[in-house]
Amino acid sequence: MPFIYALIDSGLVLYVGKTIDMRNRLYKHRSVKSNSVANEFPDYIDWDMTQLEECNETNLREREQYWMNKLNPLYNKINSICPMTHVDHVKFNHKKKADRLAFLEEEVVRLKELLKSHDISYD
Q: What range does the domain containing 57 cover?
């Protein structure tokens, strides 16, 4: 059965994805040898995988997009929290891993400050 899931740390939604097999997907995200988005997270992030919705294969992409729009995950390619043009994304994805991590760490700080300024708890 297909699922939509999120990788979350302290209430901050890092990534939204879809899978047929939650257990296998969790293993791939935790594996250092995989090409998982979780390997891009800074070392201090201690994320958990949460099932958001069980759906069917015909609406899997639509439901994933719904959850990305609703939760604004930090690490999905295109989202509304870190608005970037397609050109920005191409430049970002071609940077060295250390440069991408530094950028994302700065974004986490910026987003936490933004949430704090709106009296929104993130812990």
A: 3-117
pLDDT confidence bin for 81, thresholds 50/70/90: very low
Domain count, the chain: 1
Establish if 34 belongs to a structural domain.
yes
Q: What is the DSSP letter of 5?
A: E
pLDDT at 28 over 70: yes
Q: Is residue 83 part of a domain?
A: yes
Alpha carbon 61 to its chain's center: 16
CATH number of the CATH domain containing 28:
3.40.1440.10
115 contacts: CB under 8 Å, gap ≥ 6: 121, 122
pLDDT(89) > 50: yes
Q: What is the DSSP string of 10-77?
A: TTEEEEEEEES-HHHHHHHHH-TTS--GGGGS-TT---EEEEEEE--GGGHHHHHHHHHHHH--SSSS
pLDDT at 80: 41
Tell me the two tokens of residue 115.
């949430």
Radius of gyration (Cα) for the chain, nearest Å? Answer: 15
